[in-house]
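User: Can you predict the 3D structure of Taurine dioxygenase? Sequence below.
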Amino acid sequence: MLNKNRVSIVQDGNNVCADVVGFDFDAYDENDIAQVRKYWLQYGVLRFRHASVTDEQQITFSRHFGDFVIHPKQLQEGGHPRHKEILVIANTVKDGKPTGAMGNSEATWHTDTWFYEKPPAGAILHAVEVPPSGGDTNFLSTYLAYETLPEELSKAVDGRQIFFQRVYDKTGKLRLGKSEPRSEDFREWEGIVHPLVRTHPETLRKALYLGGTIEGAWIVGMPLDESHDLLEQLWKHTTENSEIFVQKWDKGDIMMWDNRCTMHRRDSFDPSFTRIMHRTTTSGERPV
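Assistant: Sure. Here are the predicted C-alpha cells for Taurine dioxygenase:
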C-alpha cells in the first residue's frame, strides 16, 4: 500500500523554491514521484538537502521526469567518463585539460539552451564537492516576471515573438559546429524564433521567455533599436525586481528546476578551491 503522506515540502515564503522533506532516494514509489512532480510544477525549483546520491541514483531519478537531453557542453569538456547522461560542471584539471565545464567563472542569468527548438523541460544538479564560499546559484520565477509587468510592458509583449541567434555563445565563442557568419546583421544568422511570452504546457501559466542575453536577440518585426530598448526594460524588470532565491551549496545538495518558468545564474568562486557538480537534463517541448 502506498504511503501518501511521506513526501512534503517546507517553503520559506520565497516565490520560486521549496525544500523537499521525506523523499528517500534509496526507496521511493510512484506516489513519491507524483508528489515531487506536483511540487516541482507548483514552485519551479525544489531543493533536496544533503541527499548525497550516486550517479546511478541521479540518473534513475531523472528518468521519471523525461527523456535525457545532451547538453552542448557535454560534447566538449563536460562529458562524464562513464555516464553519457551526466554533464560534469567543475573547475578541475587533469593532464592539463579541464575535466568539467564552466571553470570558476560567473554564469549570468539565463534559461538553459534557450536557442534550441525544444529547450529542456528541467534539470537536476547534484553538488559532489563545493568550495567553502562562492559558487552560489540564484533562481527567479519568470511567471512572476510576467505577472508583475507594468501595463505598458504587458501590452508591448502581447503576441510578440523573439529571435535568438545560435552561432555564438554568451562569451562570444563560436558554438560547436558553427562557422563565422557572412553578414554583420545577426538577424540573418542561423537562429530560432520563440514566443516572448510562453504558456507552460502543464500548468498553463504564462511566463516571460528572455533566453540568455540581449545580444543576438531581436523582437521580431520591431526596429532593432526599439527591440533592444524593450528587451533592456524586460531584463531589468525580471532580474532586478523579482524575488530571488539564493542557493548556498552544501555537499550533497540537489537542486531541481523547471526550465520553462525559471531563470538562474551562478556566482564565480575562488579557483584555488574545487567545485564539482553533476547535472542531468530532461527533454522539453517547443515553446508556445
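The mean pLDDT is 92. The chain has five helices and 19 strands.
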